[in-house]
Specification:
By secondary structure, this protein is an all-alpha fold. The chain is built from 18 helices and no strands. It folds into 3 domains: 193 residues, Up-down Bundle (Growth Hormone, Chain: A), CATH 1.20.1250; 57 residues; 247 residues, MFS general substrate transporter like domains (Growth Hormone, Chain: A, Up-down Bundle). Helix 1 runs antiparallel to helix 4, helix 10 packs antiparallel against helix 15 and helix 10 runs antiparallel to helix 18.
Amino acid sequence: MTSRNSPSDIQRPEDFDFTTGSAGGRWILFPTILASSMAFIDSTALNVVLPSLQKAFGTTGSDLLWVINAYHLMLAALILTGGAMGDRFGRKKVFMWGILVFMAGSAGCGLSQGTLMLVLFRLLQGLGGALMIPGSLSLISALFSEKEKGKAIGYWSAATTVVTISGPLLGGLLGDLGLWRLIFFINLPLGIAAVAALVKKVPETADPDNQRGTDYTGAVLAFLGLGLLTFGFLEVPEQGGFRYLRVWLPLAAGLVFSLLFLRHERHCPRPMLPLSVFKNRNFAAANLLTLLLYGALGTGMLFLSLNLVQVQGYSQLQAGLSFLPFSVIMFFLSPRTGDYTDRHGPRRLLIAGPLVAGTGFFALGLPGITSGPGVFWTTFFPGILLFGLGMALTVVPLTTTIMSSLKGQWSGLASGTNNAATRTANVTGIAIVGALAIAYYTSNIKTEAQKLPVSQEMVQKLSKQGKNLGEATVPEQFPQAQAKKALAIIKQEFSATFQLVQWACAVMAWLAALVAFLRIDR
């Protein structure tokens, strides 16, 4: 697919002056909202349908983490490069290519017949997302007039928030109906409509003199560094510890490539990530806060979905509904935190928000095994309420801090860097905490199983079920007289592991509050 604009038609942002009330302005918002909806639906709905996916493919816990991380890995490594390519070669053109690649990845995910095939197409989705996601806001920023830009972003934000709210509900409904593949196929009509609108109604714009380079070497080094570190950590539960070559060799290689990435960015004449920007105290602190808080967010919500469906007895729709309070609080409270930030600055909210969110994570770890969705309001609701309140207090002032730290020609880099930090947080949080959780779960099952009057062979068979997380079952060969006790061990130890994960997420959130207290300027 190529743009109808020739290179000579590409214009600079200052050549345009669209308004949200004009037909042209509405045509710009239409494809940017549709494309963003594709990414948001996948992100919010996929967690809820993971139990269906795991059952369909017999996926292990480590493989399940790969299904999530493959997408975020590509985004973290390439999203800055995607934004720079749009500035240089044409924002609309790169945006359309991103949508098409994302659609191809989505179709492949929907048609996947096994975990490996699904992970590979999730990588393709991530490649498309790296080209597509920066394009939404960059097109809006480039094409709307200064006085209309805030209003346009407001419309875009409101629409994507509605999608974020509906994503878990849609995922839960389709998961319960056995139609989880539609989560991926729904992207196809959305993508087709977005591309058609872009081709026919949206002008091309670029800024070829922008000093951000198309740093392909940096992108490759970032991908190898993050990818190998992720592989190494996810091999820990598979191999049974850190002492094995298959674990520490990729960890060592990932560390080397990460250091090479930093060295390359320091000396590259046109880096995708100029390291000098981190000399800005607020910018560096806000991105460190992002790494900690969003690492907790991605990991905590993943394990909450698995716990509700696979251990607590919720249907996938009920699990999706349980996330609704979080989304509603974000929707109604975010504008008010924006007003407060404008009047008083972001520092107080950036301390209070992660503190409250961390308390929410801590509360989520308290209920243990419950009697099901009938007691949701007294078990998991308080934690979700606190967590949602904490995130609502944090998101707007965090974005404000990021965007006000680097102004003018650096604003795009500020947004892109923070987006990359968010994805990196997801990758590393899920890989490290997830891998250690699986190892902890497996070890605890083995310890408790040894108390049963069964052979060591049966103990080993039961402990190996730990790699399946909440989908763990009692092996068929297990003595029937002890099967009920073995199932109780599986459920109880998963609940204990879930508690540990949520409390680890709480500590990460509280550390984020400490960063704000120590490093964000008054």
